[in-house]
Specification:
- The chain has about 475 residues and is an alpha/beta fold.
- It has 18 helices and 22 strands.
- It has helices at about 20-35, 45-50, 65-75, 120-135, 155-165, 180-190, 195-200, 220-230, 250-270, 300-315, 330-350, 365-385, 390-395, 395-400, 410-415, 430-435, 445-455, 465-475, and strands at about 1-5, 5-10, 40, 55, 60-65, 80-85, 90-95, 100, 110, 115-120, 170-175, 205-210, 215, 235, 240, 275-280, 285, 290-295, 320, 350-355, 360, 365.
- The strands form 7 sheets. Strands 4-5-3-13 form a 4-stranded mixed beta sheet. Strands 10-9-22-21 form a 4-stranded mixed beta sheet. Strands 11-12-14-16 form a 4-stranded parallel beta sheet.
- The termini are far apart.
């Protein structure tokens, strides 16, 4: 709640779960952690858990007393500030502040030049990074696509090196294993001016996942521990599929996801208390008609909001999804689902929102959808301002001065305030004759033209030659 001229006003708000429901979900997760447990396929983590009072049986089944969960939640920081490549604060993961970025690792791209549905290449992901670097409302960059024109064992190293080169924005990255994660950290440190400078700047954040239901793989825990050791942020986000790898109800799916997040957080905080950790989960359901996950479903919008509220309840930075669709092309369905997801992200207040540009449930990327979502975020930002009601904004004196039958076109207040309203960049408000005279373009055509304009013209400030060589040398280690 903000105050203007001593008059309070609220922007739009959304609270999905009551306090009693949050408590019930938490207690349900504690019971799963106490009674059912999770399997850890990582010996060092098992040893550490056993030493601190967890109950280990059947080789690698770990059950948790509640105190371990409570200690881990209390230990993790409630605020993470991510900087841009120059070390300037850019993304504040705190409270209900919301920032948007792309997703990772799409296999296919809708080519903006030809419209062809094809595999990603290195040139494509560079174009995507340049596009995101130019867009005001895309606040961080994730890897977008898997380039098909390189050795696949080197894909994550190539993505990281190219992100560091072609955008100055904060980076969320993915890696294959501990070794590739270490190389990504080393590349970012070379750009930041050393590992301690990177820790101070928090320029990068790792996305990783447990294996639903109720398992932590060796590689996932390796990366979890490495990021804790390195004092760099990680989101350890389960993705249970209700009706597949998770139970069928949203409440039970949330309990499962909570158990997976909180057990990962325990290991993370045991490795280094106070290391930065982001709370998130992607709780989809399995569409039984198509056997596909659903990005545009109302249920996914609800579970995203619930995860955001739970993370805020625990006092942790949060992770979410928006700007994505189950549509196969950028059509009316894609626009509808992208807008719904952006509004839900803003209303729920999750901090770091990824997957902008996803089509086909994450299998295909669309640069035009990234540009459209940039516009939709700006629209949502103005919606979230709400309505200020004060003596100044009610303008009673001006109402009296103009009086019945007058107009407000040239009043001082109109001239001072008309720019306060939102003016779209690509959505069209012209009269039909003006629209015809300016080319009669569709929104899809305008989005495509904007993509091609940015990719052709925009370049991030280049890395200095020595830094670029250092990044390339670390990247080359992937082939050894």
């Amino acid at each position: 709640m903000r105050t203007v001229n001593s008059v309070s006003f609220l922007g739009p708000q959304f609270a999905l779960l009551a306090e009693s429901q949050l408590q019930d979900l938490h207690l349900g997760a504690l019971e799963v952690l106490r009674r059912t447990g999770l399997r850890f396929y990582h010996q060092a983590a098992l040893d550490m858990l056993k030493d601190t009072g967890a109950f280990v049986s059947d080789g690698n089944l770990v059950r948790f007393p509640a105190r371990l969960i409570e200690d881990a939640v209390a230990s993790a920081p409630g605020r993470i500030i991510m900087c841009d490549r120059d070390g300037e604060p850019a993304v504040f993961l705190e409270g209900s502040r919301v920032y948007f970025g792309t997703g990772s690792d799409c296999l296919n791209l809708l080519d903006p030049e030809t419209g062809e549905h094809r595999k990603f290449t290195q040139a494509d992901i560079v174009a995507g990074y340049r596009l995101c670097d130019a867009l005001e409302n895309i606040h961080f960059v994730m890897s977008i696509g898997i380039p098909s024109d390189i050795e696949q064992s080197q894909a994550y190293d190539v993505q990281m090196a190219l992100m560091l080169e072609h955008t100055t924005k904060p980076i969320v990255f993915v890696t294959n294993d501990r070794a590739s994660c270490q190389r990504a950290i080393d590349m970012a440190a070379a750009v930041a001016g050393g590992h301690r400078a990177l820790v101070e700047q928090q320029h990068i954040l790792l996305y990783s996942e447990p294996s639903s239901p109720l398992q932590h793989s060796e590689t996932a825990v390796d990366k979890l521990l490495l990021m804790a050791e390195s004092e760099l942020p990680i989101v350890y986000s389960p993705a249970p599929l209700m009706g597949g790898t998770g139970p069928i109800t949203m409440a039970s799916g949330l309990v499962l996801a909570l158990a997976e997040i909180l057990s990962g957080l325990v290991v993370h905080q045991l490795q280094r208390p106070g290391a930065p950790f982001v709370f998130g989960a992607g709780l989809h359901h399995l569409d039984m008609r198509s056997a596909q996950i659903c990005y545009g479903s109302p249920e996914f919008q609800l579970t995203k909001a619930a995860i955001a509220q739970l993370g805020q309840w625990y006092g942790l930075p949060t992770w979410g999804y928006a700007g994505c669709s189950d549509a196969k092309v950028l059509d009316e369905q894609a626009a509808l689902e992208a807008q719904l997801s952006v509004l839900m992200a803003k209303l729920s207040g999750a901090n770091l929102i990824h997957d902008v540009g996803y089509l086909e449930s994450g299998l295909t990327g669309s640069f035009e959808l990234i540009v459209l979502t940039d516009e939709l975020i700006a629209l949502a930002d103005h919606l979230m301002k709400g309505i200020e009601v004060s003596q100044e904004t009610m303008m009673l004196d001006e109402l009296h001065q103009v009086g019945p039958g007058g107009h407000y076109m040239d009043t001082a207040s109109t001239l001072a305030r008309f720019r306060d309203f939102w003016y779209p960049g690509l959505l069209d408000r012209q009269r039909r004759d003006q629209w015809l005279g300016s080319g009669a373009t569709s929104l899809n055509q305008r989005l495509n033209e904007r993509v091609k304009e940015i990719v052709s013209e925009h370049r991030a400030r280049p890395l200095d030659p020595d830094t670029k060589l250092a990044v390339q040398a670390i990247r080359a280690q992937a082939g050894n």
